[in-house]
Amino acid sequence: MDLPWKPIYTQSAGEFDWEGGISAASDSTDDGSYSPFAYWSLAGTVGFTVLVYVMEGHLDARQKKAYQITEFPNELEATVSKIDSQAKHSEQKEDDAKNSKGSDDNSDDKDAIDMDKPLLEQLQAKFKSSQSYGMDKINFGMVAGTYETFESIAILLLGFTPFLWDQSVRLGETYLGIKSDEEIKITLVFLLLQTLIDTVKSLPFELYKTFMIEKKHGFNKQTYGLFFSDKIKSLILSCIIGGPFVALLLKTIKYGGENFYIYLWAFMFFFSIFMMTIIPVFVMPLFNKYEPLEEGTLKTRIHELAGRIQYPLKKLFVMDGSKRSSHSNAFMFGFGSNKRIVLFDTLLEQVSNNEILAILGHELGHWKLGHTLTNFVVTQVYFGVAFYFFSQCYTSKDLYAAFGFDSTTSGVPTIIALLLFFQTLWAPVDKVLSFVLTVFSRHCEFAADRFSVDLGMSQDLQSGLCKIHLENLGAMCPDGLYSAYHYSHPPLVERLSAMMALEKKKD
């Protein structure tokens, strides 16, 4: 069989060439020739996809082996025992008891955290459950990853994307009165079809993960009604926000001239600001309820902490995350002097007031140390560089022809040019950058931990992280290579050890 450098369906043929199979590239450019890059682009994309699949599959296999360990890790045992020892000799905090729902509200829940029980004992008790949860997730991830990989390859080799574009043109002309040269309207039809197809394809995997794995391990709180209402809301929002966004993006490229990437960069900058503004204020409340944190000691102390580091906190919210999952979290948002903090209601149930303050000290550390701004700047630089390189191959007709877009009667649709660029030339760059950003994220997490330690919250942050890890059944003995590649946050034992080392230096 010839190398797969041209798919079964092509625009020039207008049909699937099942008899010929995956054929070699033919005369579809103006002079009938192909650049070496375009000639090998489809085969190279398939090869890179397989390479990533094999590499990540190897890491998954290593992590799967780690989940088969039956003995509690010695390093974690030694580290957590020190935390218990420190807690035993520390003065009992008043609000620990006040905020401990375990002895009252959760008295019937045998898996709830016991605030008076040593953390090591509780982690050891949940080690088997943690390993089981991790094993279920990794097995599911390997199956889903295998499907997604070979589906992507099939889409490329079959030429499904040019086929779907041609069907979008026909659908627009036949039912919507859209002319074949109205590219933006056809693009919106194409993206709508693609979104609906992707939603249907991913639905079985999402249902299984939510209502089998998450439910089995006691995390899922969603009903089927809530699950599907979220899906419908997401699709509607995609149309309301995504439609105008795509139209403006295409217009920017079309009318930007040779240096369109500069205007495209500026457009993405302002759109990013716009989305960062409306998502927490208008979009997220469509899915969850946000209520002001009730008056009391915790609210007063959070405002005091914010004032201590000059964080312009305006509002404190509690989000009803428990209606979907028992996983916990906290986050911040807002521009300038209008900052807000959101606590999951599950977090309030799982840790003490002191530990919440320590966790927020960590999160506020990201702001104080400039991590939030740095990530935003890095994202904008990424867009600028990517759009510049896209502009260099935007007019490369033979590149797109190699993927089935070899029609000589019309130009390559701009949205297709963008999608193929990020799928081919930019894909290896994206993988490398993704790993670099993961390494940087871990560095930021250690720095934010250090910030919380400097605030005098080390012991509370350590115990708080242990409790969150306990409640979320986090991996207690992750494989080193797997965690280095996938984890944006360092493993628990590494964070605890780093904080203890900082305390030792202070002493």
Write the layout of secondary structure elements.
Blueprint: E1 9-10, E2 15-16, H1 36-66, H2 74-89, H3 94-99, H4 119-158, H5 160-175, H6 183-216, H7 224-255, H8 260-283, E3 290-292, H9 297-308, E4 313-319, E5 330-333, E6 339-344, H10 345-350, H11 353-368, H12 371-393, H13 397-401, H14 414-423, H15 427-454, H16 458-472, H17 480-486, H18 492-506
Parallel strand pairs: 4-6
Antiparallel strand pairs: 1-2, 3-4, 5-6
Helix pairs in contact: 1-4, 2-16, 2-18, 4-6, 4-16, 5-6, 6-7, 7-8, 8-12, 9-11, 11-15, 11-16, 15-18, 16-18
GO molecular function: metal ion binding; metalloendopeptidase activity
Region (Disordered): 82-113
Cofactor: Zn(2+)
Describe the protein's architecture and organization.
With 507 residues, the chain is mainly α. The chain has one domain. Helix content is 66%, strand content 5%. The chain has helices at residues 36-66, 74-89, 94-99, 119-158, 160-175, 183-216, 224-255, 260-283, 297-308, 345-350, 353-368, 371-393, 397-401, 414-423, 427-454, 458-472, 480-486, 492-506, and strands at residues 9-10, 15-16, 290-292, 313-319, 330-333, 339-344. The strands form 2 sheets. A 4-stranded mixed β-sheet has the order 3-4-6-5. Strands 1-2 form a two-stranded antiparallel ribbon. Helix 4 crosses helix 16 (458-472), helix 9 runs parallel beside helix 11 and helix 11 (353-368) packs across helix 15 (427-454). The N and C termini lie far apart (70 Å). Residues 26-30 and 93-110 have low confidence and may be disordered. Its cofactor is Zn(2+). Residues 124-289 form the CAAX prenyl protease 1 N-terminal domain. Residues 82-113 are annotated as: Disordered.
